[in-house]
């Protein structure tokens, strides 16, 4: 086996020692300096040093010893080259593609919510989590898929664990997807509630996308760059015109919706976007959102480096005791559930076993793409955390706390939040709202608006100007809404195909994806599933995010646990037991976190769905109404919603336990076997196929 | 001995190739070259046809993107 990695030189050793010392010093400053605010650059430098060291040492160990990647071995793209799906591609192109596919709203939202415990717990979990769990998962699943003709996660689970666990895991993925779509759509609802400016710009993306779709199809087929530039200019124009909409009462009234109405609009939109031909609406929005996403992440990085903000949030707040307003629950396990994407995200295992393994020209490059790509995403999460922590903590809590806890006026909110120890005046809250061109900043949970205010303040600090902050804020909101909505329509479509496949087992005609009946029935089911949770979030007493984000976190970490269990099973099956702890430790950690969080969400006296349902049921029994319910019917609905969430949590726990059982069974069998039993494709030398 | 047929030769080419791939459209020239070498009997699609086929394929249901 030839090694692609050169031996370290003395100069190299000195360099790595220097990186380690700088990283340790910065991390020490971040962790230990108390009482005086620190600059974000310490955090950025510490993170980069940790990423470099993790990449240089740990990922190399995984590449050479655990996965035993072999640069002389032909990859699926070379063996099955068809110029379309399987194409040997330059590694940096694959890296860019992979990063664009894994980066989404997740790493931007989770860390913002977790900032209620201070910036330190979130930072530490992102850094440790990505090096030992998240990047390991992405890299190992990519490595496994590379050795199996680029097969999908579900396929590999069926092969290595058995038919039954494979099907169970796929049902889990479908449920997870519905929760992901509902929670992400809720983030958009929270950002756009009674915000005519924001709603107008997001609505404007629909005609813009239709125009782009027609242009790409009939006027200049396939000219993506051209049409994306046209689309971008129109989008910027819509942000600019949004101010006029906001300032003109007759126009503003047309785009001023409450949470319920927005939820219905999104449900309707999701239906049409996934039923219409993809070239008309879905694809052009996808292109715009992909480019805007990368551009905005770059802009955020630039803003943080240039503005070098001071972190105003304390390193650790009192809310590590589980009494925080943004999400309920103790640091363990809820910090590890709240920050999923950015530290470890199960969803990535689907991407890492999707298109990426069909593009890599050489096994040796999997380390850069799989492990390196995830480190990039962790860096995005760190930046989101910095943007949130650089806000005035009073403003942060005003935006992210439910109205039921802090009140619905600036005076009440300022008073409550000041009583928590984060001194803030009502004027500071109303000024912030006015600066960003909104009527209020209260009750804007979900991460996106907080990040948008953080970004707007950073960018405004670099490029000051009258009214500019409102433009930056709405730009940030638009870009987040745009890529969340793209996820919603593409996800609805994928969900529709999954449902059609499952339904096709019962009645064959439903399977035909070309048939209109099957198409519409499956789409209605799919939209209905996530729409139910979205609507539930819109009418939730605690604002929705507080209730639904833990469900999303549990589901996402559950999938990560399943992926890492697969990696553990395969490591043992290959008789590389010496290294079994590499995937087994993060797998065990995620199993513990998801099961503990699930348990508390069902049985805890304060934070469980059960307790919430009981509270409303008791009030109902004594004939009382509890806010925000305005009638007994609404009371009943809140009770039902909480019971559904309870059942869903129990389902997730059952899924984790079942998969744990099947994994342990496979591990025991493989451990006893005297020879490797994994289903790898046979070795083919790269030199024998390459043209 | 160059398996990497689609290696970009400049930063601009790299950016274009990555951007197109992010939209699910692989390199057209590489595909044409592949067709000519391995399937000379098949007709070579125009870029427009190639683009449409790839656009449909991207949303056929196997893909997915992250949260």
Outline the structure in words.
The complex is a heterodimer of chains A (691) and B (67). The mean pLDDT of chain A is 92. Chain A is built from 28 helices and no strands. Chain A has helices spanning 10-32, 40-66, 76-79, 91-102, 106-114, 119-146, 153-161, 163-192, 196-219, 224-247, 249-254, 259-275, 282-307, 331-338, 348-352, 366-389, 393-400, 403-406, 410-419, 426-435, 448-462, 468-506, 516-538, 545-573, 581-603, 609-621, 632-672, 686-689. Chain A is mainly α and 691 residues long. In chain A, 72% of the residues lie in helices and 0% in strands. Chain A has a single domain, classed as Amino acid/polyamine transporter I (Up-down Bundle). Chain A is globular, with a radius of gyration of 25 Å. Helix content of chain B is 52%, strand content 0%. Chain B is built from three helices and no strands. Chain B has a domain at 26-56. Chain B starts with 10 loop residues before the first helix and ends in a 9-residue tail after the last helix. By secondary structure, chain B is mostly helical. The interface between A and B is large, with 69 and 45 residues.
């Amino acid at each position: 086996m030839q090694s692609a990695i050169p031996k370290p030189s003395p100069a190299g050793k000195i360099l790595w020692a220097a990186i380690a010392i700088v990283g340790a010093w910065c991390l020490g400053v971040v962790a230990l300096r108390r009482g005086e605010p620190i600059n974000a650059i310490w955090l950025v430098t510490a993170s980069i040093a940790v990423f470099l060291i993790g990449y240089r040492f740990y990922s190399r160990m995984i590449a050479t010893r655990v996965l035993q990647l072999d640069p002389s071995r032909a990859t699926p793209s070379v063996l099955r080259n068809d110029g379309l799906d399987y194409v040997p591609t330059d590694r940096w192109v694959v890296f860019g593609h992979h990063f664009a596919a894994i980066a989404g709203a997740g790493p931007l939202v989770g860390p913002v919510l977790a900032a209620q415990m201070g910036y330190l717990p979130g930072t530490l979990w992102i850094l440790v989590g990505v090096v030992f769990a998240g990047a390991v998962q992405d890299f190992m699943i990519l490595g496994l898929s590379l050795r199996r003709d680029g097969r999908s996660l579900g396929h590999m689970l069926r092969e290595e664990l058995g038919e039954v666990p494979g099907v169970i895991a796929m049902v889990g993925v479908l449920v997870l997807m519905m929760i992901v779509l509902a929670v992400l759509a809720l983030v958009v609802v929270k950002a756009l509630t009674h915000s005519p400016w924001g709603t107008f710009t997001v609505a404007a993306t629909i005609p813009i996308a239709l125009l782009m779709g027609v242009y790409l199809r009939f006027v200049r087929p396939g000219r993506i760059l051209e049409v994306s530039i046209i689309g971008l200019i129109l989008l910027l124009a819509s942000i600019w015109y949004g101010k006029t909409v906001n300032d003109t009462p007759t126009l503003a009234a047309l785009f001023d919706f409450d949470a319920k109405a927005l939820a219905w609009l999104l449900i309707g939109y999701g239906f049409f976007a996934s039923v219409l031909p993809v070239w008309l609406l879905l694809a052009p929005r996808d292109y715009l959102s992909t480019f805007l996403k990368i551009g905005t992440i770059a802009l955020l990085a630039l803003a943080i480096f240039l503005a070098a903000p001071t972190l105003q949030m304390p390193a650790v707040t009192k809310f590590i005791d589980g009494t925080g307003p943004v999400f309920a629950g103790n640091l363990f396990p809820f910090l590890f559930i709240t920050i999923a994407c950015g530290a470890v995200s199960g969803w990535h295992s689907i991407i890492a076993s999707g298109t990426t393994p069909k593009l890599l020209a050489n096994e040796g490059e999997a380390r850069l793409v799989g492990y390196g790509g995830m480190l990039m995403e962790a860096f995005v999460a760190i930046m989101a955390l910095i943007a949130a922590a650089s806000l005035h903590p009073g403003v942060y809590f005003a935006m992210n706390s439910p109205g039921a806890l802090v009140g619905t006026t600036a005076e009440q909110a300022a008073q409550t939040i000041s009583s928590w120890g984060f001194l803030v005046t009502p004027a500071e809250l109303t000024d912030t709202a006015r600066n960003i061109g909104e009527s209020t900043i209260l009750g804007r949970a979900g991460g996106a608006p907080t990040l948008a205010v953080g970004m707007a303040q950073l960018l405004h600090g670099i490029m000051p100007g009258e009214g500019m902050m409102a433009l930056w804020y709405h730009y940030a909101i638009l870009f987040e809404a745009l890529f969340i909505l793209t996820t919603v329509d593409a996800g609805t479509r994928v969900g529709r195909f999954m449902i059609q496949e499952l339904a096709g087992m019962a009645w064959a005609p439903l399977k035909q994806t070309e048939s209109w009946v099957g198409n519409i029935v499956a789409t209605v089911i799919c939209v209905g599933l996530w729409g139910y949770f979205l609507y539930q979030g819109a009418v939730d007493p605690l604002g929705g995010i507080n209730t639904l984000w833990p469900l999303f976190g549990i589901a996402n970490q559950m999938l990560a646990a399943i992926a890492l269990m697969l990696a553990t099973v395969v490591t043992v099956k290959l008789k590389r037991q010496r290294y079994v702890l590499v995937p087994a430790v993060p797998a065990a950690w995620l199993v513990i976190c998801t099961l503990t969080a699930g348990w508390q969400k069902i049985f805890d006296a304060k934070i469980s769905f059960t307790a919430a349902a009981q509270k409303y049921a008791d009030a109902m029994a004594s004939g009382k109404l509890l806010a925000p319910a305005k009638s007994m019917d609404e009371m009943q609905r809140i009770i039902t919603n909480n019971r559904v969430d309870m059942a869903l949590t129990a389902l997730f726990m059952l899924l984790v336990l079942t998969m744990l059982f099947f994994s342990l069974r496979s591990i025991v069998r493989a451990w006893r076997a005297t020879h490797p039993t994994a289903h790898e494709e046979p070795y083919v030398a790269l030199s024998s196929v390459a043209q | 001995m160059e398996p990497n047929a689609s290696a970009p030769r400049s930063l601009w080419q790299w950016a274009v190739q990555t951007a197109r791939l992010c939209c699910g459209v692989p390199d057209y020239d590489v595909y044409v070259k592949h067709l000519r070498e391995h399937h000379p009997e098949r007709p070579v699609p125009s870029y427009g046809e190639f683009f449409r086929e790839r656009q449909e394929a991207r949303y056929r249901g196997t893909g997915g993107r992250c949260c």
